[in-house]
């Protein structure tokens, strides 16, 4: 009987460690998912900014300026 009790105590310790490991794994997966979502939203704003820049360049080129002048102007140059 005493051997069975010792074995059950060893198992409960391992079970707690495995539970903690699983909880940590779940937490790190959650943090990774949140980070990936933040990166995805960052790409959306870059796409929008890129579209606005391209529209600016096209508009300046239609006014009769060269490509390099249009890009310089849209980057904030005069």
From TrEMBL:
Keywords tagged on the record: Membrane, Transmembrane, Transmembrane helix
Chain ranges passing through the membrane: 21-43
Record's protein name: Uncharacterized protein
Annotated organism of origin: Prochlorococcus marinus str. MIT 9116
């Amino acid at each position: 009987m005493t051997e069975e009790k010792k074995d059950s105590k060893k198992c409960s310790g391992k079970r707690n460690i495995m539970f903690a490991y699983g909880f940590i794994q779940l937490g790190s997966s959650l943090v990774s998912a949140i980070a990936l979502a933040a990166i995805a939203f960052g790409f959306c704003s870059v796409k929008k900014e890129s579209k606005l820049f391209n529209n600016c360049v096209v508009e300046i080129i239609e006014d009769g300026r060269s490509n390099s002048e249009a890009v310089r102007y849209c980057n904030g140059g005069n």
